[in-house]
Amino acid sequence: MKLTMIAKKVKALPLNTMADKFNAGIAVGRATIKDLRTFEEAAHSHRDDYHLFFIQETGSTPIEIDFQKYEIQSSSVIYVHPDQIHRIGPFENITASFLAINNENLNSEYLNLLEDIAPAKTLLLNKETFCAISEAISLSVKLSKRHHEKLYHSLLKDSCNTLVALIASQYLGQSKSKDTLSRFEIITKAFKALLDRNFISNKKPSEYAQGLNISIAYLNECVKNTTGKPISYHIQQRVILEAMRYLYHSTKSVKEIAAELGYADYSYFSRVFAKVTGMTAVAFRNKNLE
Q1: Which of 126, 167, 190, 248 is the most exposed place for a label (fewest CB within 10 A)?
Q2: What 3-state DSSP class applies to 49?
Q3: What average pLDDT score do residues 52-67 get?
Q4: What is the distance between the alpha carbons of residues 33 and 56, in angstroms, rounded to a whole number?
Q5: Between 172 and 8, residue with greater pLDDT
Q6: Do the domains at 2-172 and 180-289 have one common CATH topology?
């Protein structure tokens, strides 16, 4: 049996809120192809206001996250940050588990770790690790059904945070530890974090250098040495990613999108978009409407 989904166009970026879907601020479960409604809701492009962990147990599931397509294979996991637009593609005969948890219920230490991990790619787990995560999911699912417990929310919250820690640990194992980062890498990481928070209001390299209390020349040296690209490149890429999200998932006009992203000069925004993507904003939207 095969299920194919078609993305919907809406007038604004679609947002699934934890309050609308999960009153406790946490949801954990295991689903199969039989649970069509669960997957149908995730098949349309959307953004969540919570952190999502998707664990593939059997079969494979295509997923699109911010215009990048991934295939989640058996014994794999992927983390989706609240900022990211995503949808599940067509699939058949699968079993998968998920965890959705909002900031209020997430351990603050893990929240910081997840900011470092995003954007994340699919991660294949070895047999031992997959078994440990599967057992943690099973426990969390069982606890989620024990509403009679006096400490129900605490039990569910703690078990799900353990699951988050297990998954985050696997991602961190694929990257350098903070102790082994060079000075250039530390500054580049700080720049990217600052950029993600301020890309709408701050478009100039000097504003980021000032925010990090270093010179533009040194910041550019650090970023270029670490990534191979200058500061301006990363600023433009972050802004245009957000523009692409709006163009693809909403019917706002290009002029409205430019204003949303902090561009008073619509024509300048259009030139930047064309420079980064190789096509006009209208052409990008029309291409994705086909």
Answers
A1: 126
A2: coil
A3: 91
A4: 12
A5: 172
A6: no
